[in-house]
């Protein structure tokens, strides 16, 4: 990684896969554990959790595929998202299976509105200046909407297709 960090790309991907595993458990205790593991390791403190081969939830080839396909800019923002305390404040579907607004509180306490719809948007400065996926959009995609496949088209564009949005929202708002 080119950012000022004590974490290697492979270690980050390993920790990222651990966090995804913990988050899929839908247990707030395990989410807190995952956040603590990522924060502790990423900040270069003593390891709170010793990684072993048994903890590998993604295979080596999966990690290598992700390393080769995830743009470095996206990876840096994923790392920032994992390190910082971002919280969901509220959510509201604005168009059935097509658009959803989320209010998040950033690590500085500022509240931002993230829109996942025909055009991904966030009210933060990073998104408005760079016009890319910011850490708040990534937070919503990964933590709230559970889009864990980093090869998904929603990570490659700010204008996902209706089919992609319907797929994401159908998992978020399951119908019986």
Automatic annotation (TrEMBL):
One of its GO terms (molecular function) is zinc ion binding. Keywords: Metal-binding, Signal, Zinc, Zinc-finger. The keyword Transferase does not apply. It holds the Pfam family SWIM. Residues 1-28 form the signal peptide. It comes from the Eukaryota. Residues 112-145 form the SWIM-type domain. This is SWIM-type domain-containing protein.
